[in-house]
């Protein structure tokens, strides 16, 4: 339950940041955020990462929905028995849900974080959740999953 609550809190944060950006920054305008590192730029992305699959909002919404359901089921079934494993699933669930909400209700994803020290795609809180969750999942699977499964097996 704690991990679903964490995902819900992250979705709320994602949606509040997106709402603030849509209400306070004109579309396509950049405002300084972290000098030398990042601006806030209101961008409407009808695609996925790096604007791939632009204009395929409903297909991407279906993929996001399927991913959200799959991750929620994995979380419910304790597929990853350790805390870090469940955290990774919570982060990925939050990211998938945050962008799914945008795709369904707005028909685009609100992006806002634009790096100024390098040319990189504009991204949002949900994207951060998915990327951090994915990286942590790789770390978990490579270094901790087997140990957690052994502990679970030894305890039963």
What would you say about this model in short?
With 156 residues, the chain is α+β, with helices and mostly antiparallel strands.
What does this 3D model show about the protein?
The protein is built from 5 helices and 3 strands. By secondary structure, it is of the alpha+beta class. It has one domain (2-34, 44-155). A 3-stranded antiparallel beta sheet has the order 1-2-3. The radius of gyration is 17 Å and the shape is elongated.
The portion of residues assigned to helices is: 55-70%
Radius of gyration (Å): 17 Å
**Overall pLDDT score:** 92
Number of strands: 3
Helix and strand succession? HEEHHEHH
Strand order of the largest sheet: 1-2-3
Strand coverage percent: 5-15%
Number of domains: 1
Largest sheet: 3 strands, antiparallel
Shape, per Cα inertia axes: elongated
Tally of alpha and pi helices: 5
Structural class: alpha+beta
N→C terminal distance: 22 Å
Q: Are there runs of 5+ residues with pLDDT below 50, and where?
A: none
Which descriptors apply to this entry?
single chain, 156 residues, 3-stranded antiparallel sheet, elongated
Secondary structure elements and pairings:
Elements: H1 2-24, E1 30-34, E2 38-45, H2 57-76, H3 83-105, E3 109-115, H4 125-143, H5 145-155
Antiparallel strand pairs: 1-2, 2-3
